[in-house]
Design goal:
mainly alpha; 6 helices
Length: about 180
């Protein structure tokens, strides 16, 4: 019988380049995830103060900047209530900033792990679990913020804000995105 030899169409160099490309893609994905302001990502939004970063959670984007000020005023939110809400957002922002710093260390560990000649799958899984715990903690902080803000507002104000948010969402879908702030 004749022996059949099968040649590998992938040269050693092609395999190395492919592996490098995969690692580069993973590092790029990690960098993109780190660059986004919250667990759901998305564009940063103007915050309460000029030197502040984006507010956390779905309400952070909706209630930030002049647009948020107008929405709160249109919902009949008093100046005292607005000050309370502002303090809640500022406290949540400070907590989020501290948590993001810890996330940067995890992303660096993941990047280093994937640049090793041999990838430790157990270590990668452990880092993934730590990242999931961070995302869960951020989600819990966002829910707590929304509950705290809800306690400041009356039921009628919450309904008016929800209606405004629904109108804005419909307008954004119709117009293809958010309008620039005036």
């Amino acid at each position: 019988m004749n022996a059949i030899t099968v040649s590998n169409p992938w040269s050693r160099r092609a395999r190395i380049l492919l592996a490098g490309g995969v690692l580069l893609a993973l590092a790029g994905t990690a960098a993109l995830v780190q660059a986004h302001p919250g667990p759901w990502g998305g564009p940063p939004h103007q915050a309460w103060a000029a030197d502040a970063g984006p507010g956390p959670g779905p309400w952070g984007a909706m209630m930030a900047g002049r647009r948020g000020q107008r929405m709160l005023e249109a919902a009949g939110v008093s100046a005292e209530q607005q000050a309370q809400i502002r303090r809640l957002f500022e406290a949540a922002r400070a907590e989020g900033d501290a948590a993001r710093e810890g996330g940067a260390a995890l992303h660096e560990q993941m990047r280093q792990l994937f640049t090793q000649p041999t990838i430790d799958a157990a270590a990668a899984e452990a880092l993934r679990q730590q990242q999931l715990a961070r995302i869960d903690a951020a989600s819990q902080r966002q829910l707590q913020l929304m509950l705290d803000v809800s306690r400041v507002l009356t039921p009628e104000q919450r309904v008016r804000l929800a209606e405004q948010a629904a109108q804005r969402k419909a307008r954004m879908r119709r117009d293809g995105g958010p309008r620039p702030e005036k």
